[in-house]
Each structure stands twice: as structure tokens, then as C-alpha cells.
Write a structure and sequence with these properties.
Layout: H1 8-17, E1 19-22, E2 44-49, E3 57-60, H2 77-84, E4 88-92, E5 111-118, E6 123-130, E7 142-144, H3 150-165
Parallel strand pairs: 4-5
Antiparallel strand pairs: 1-2, 2-3, 5-6, 6-7
Amino acid sequence: VEDTSGSEGFLTFLALLGQVIDLKGWQGFSGGLDVSDEQLTGEKAIYRKTGTIEESEIIYHVTPWLPQSSYDEGNNLERKRHFGNDTVVIIYSESLYAFEMGTLLSRQIQVVLFVKFINRIQKFQVHVYSKRPGLFVEENPFYLDPQKDGAKLSKLITDLERQCYNNPPLIEKL
């Protein structure tokens, strides 16, 4: 939650997710991001409109692009509010450490896609973690081609979101 930029691999992954948009004056789906002149949630985001039969819009809360709060002494509460209120979260990592689902304390987050770029095969490796075992994907981990698998990833994210809202504990909120 501390990073404010991104590596070349991270930016390549963002391009796979969708297009960079300016939030100021944005007319499409905003996902709770501020599109007013104040831009309290940053200046840009990633947006994708899926081309499926049930067309949907996705906007990604890119944590490094959310402004850091000067008033909360490094706790980044505004960033955590957006990140912690998402149902499906993507974590891009360039470290050698594995991910542990228990490190996320949010009740809203149900699924985490943990992404690493594998240099020797030039693909993104994606592990899917869920609070509910047995849900969501057939193949885990799976690999994405940075040049052509953006639509595949968007469909997966949309499907995961729908599955989350059709199962406890989120179905009880509807």
C-alpha cells in the first residue's frame, strides 16, 4: 500500500487489465472513485468494458495511484478503504514471498488474485486464493500472455465477482 509508482512489469500488467483513464470528469462507471475536480481519489484509474453478452464495466482501484493521506501518519487509510471494500483483489508482486490469505483482515475481500511475472516464459503467473475453498477456478495457478489475455482476465474477474455475490457471506448483504 506504500508504493506510488510501478515497475515495468506492473505497468505491463495494468495494460493487460484495461486502459488508463483520467478520473476528472469521467462519465462511465467510477467504482466509488472521485471524478470531480477535487480528484480526492487520484487522477487516473484502469477501466475496461467487457465485450461479453452481459456487458459490464470494470474500474480498478490501483493502490499506488490513490493519493496518500498526509493526516494519518503513514497508515494510508484512504487507500485501505478502497482496497478493503473490493470483493476481488489483485496483488501484483515482484518478491519471492508467497501470499497468505490470512494477512487480509477485510470481511469484504473474498478472492485474491496473486500475480507474478515469470521472466523465463514471459507470462504472468496467477494464483487464486479464496476464503471459501473449492470455489472459482479450474486451473490454479494459471498463466496469462501479456499481449493477448486481457479479455480472459476480465472475464475471470467478472465471474469471480458474481460468484462472490451469489455465495455467503455476501449474498446476505443483498
